[in-house]
Structures are given as structure tokens and as C-alpha cells.
Amino acid sequence: MITQVEITHTFNATRELVFRSFTESEHLQNWWGPKEWTFHVAKADFRPGGVFHYSQNPADGDVMWVKFVYNEMITPERVVYTSYFSDEDGNIVRAPFNENWPLETLNTLTFTENGGKTTLTAIVAPAASATEEELKTFGESQVMVHEGFSGTFNQLEDYLSKELK
Predict the structure, then answer these.
(1) Distance between CA atoms of residues 40 and 114, nearest Å
(2) How many Cβ atoms sit within 10 Å of the Cβ of residue 24?
(3) Inter-residue long-range contacts of 104-108, CB under 8 Å, 24+ positions, other chains counted
């Protein structure tokens, strides 16, 4: 059974800039999430133990809240956070698209620079508390996870190309 998804993307930008794009809300709010969705930052505290809580809303759908809790942050090398769908107050709720989606996922981002370009490796896995059904759902959803992160990273690439001009 597939227990994690790995996504790798190389950006034409320094590691420091790519890292800041993930750890500063003035950057993150310009590219994170599905394309064409409205994005609102409710709380941004980028440090171990800190929280990033936001809402995103498609033009034709209901608002969706998500919360990250940062476990580790090593500037500019690595970010580890737990993410989950939440209500407006930050309480864990079931994913709106599948009630068997893991309540929490562990996300590890590693930033490696080579020749002025940065390779980001993201590993997404269900949290240790996931049930068998949640693990099965996650395994069956690997394409969705990969496509979601890849699309988001493409948006970051577009954002960085504008930032660097």
C-alpha cells in the first residue's frame, strides 16, 4: 500500500527565495492553493509550534479552511508541518471531498540549491494516527495529491518569475 507521495520540482530561483515563499505570508498568499481560488490568511506564525491557518474558496463553491502546524523549520533547508482541514476556529474536520481522507497529513519540504536553481522535494504522508480506511483512501488518491502539489508548484514558479523581474 502506498503510504507517501513524493513530488519534486526545480525552480529557477535561489533556495533562500523559494524557502521564504513558503514561510512568509506576503509571498505564500500570492501562489498557494488551487488556481483561481480566493485565498485568505487568518493566522501566520512560521516557526516550530507555529500555525498557518487559511481559507480558500473556489468561485463556484463553499469556503474550505486548512491549518498547518509547524513541527520543524530549518532555514533555508527544511520545513516539516502537519496539515488538516479545519473549521473557521481551527478545529480538525473531515475533508470536504472525501470523509475517509486522513484527518492529518505530515508534509516534509526539503530545499536544495545547485547553480542558482532550487530543487524542492515534498513528501506527503498520512499521520501516524491514520486508520486503515484512511490509509487506503490516501493510497488511492496519490494521483490527486501529486497533481495538486504540482499545480501549486507551477503557480509558485510563475510567481517567482514575476518576483525576480
Answers:
(1) 33
(2) 12
(3) 104/129, 104/130, 105/138, 106/71, 106/80, 106/81, 106/82, 107/68, 107/79, 107/80, 107/81, 107/82, 107/83, 108/78, 108/79, 108/80
The CA distance from 83 to 86, in Å, is 9
The average pLDDT across 44-52 equals 96
Element (H, E) at 107: strand 105-114
Are residues 159 and 26 in contact, defined by beta-carbon separation less than 8 angstroms? no
What are the grid coordinates assigned to 57, written together? 474558496
Mean pLDDT over 131-142 rounds to: 94
Three-class DSSP category at 108: strand
Instruction: Report pLDDT for 1.
Output: 63
Residue-range domain boundaries for the chain: 5-163
> Which architecture characterizes domain 5-163 according to CATH?
2-Layer Sandwich (3.30)
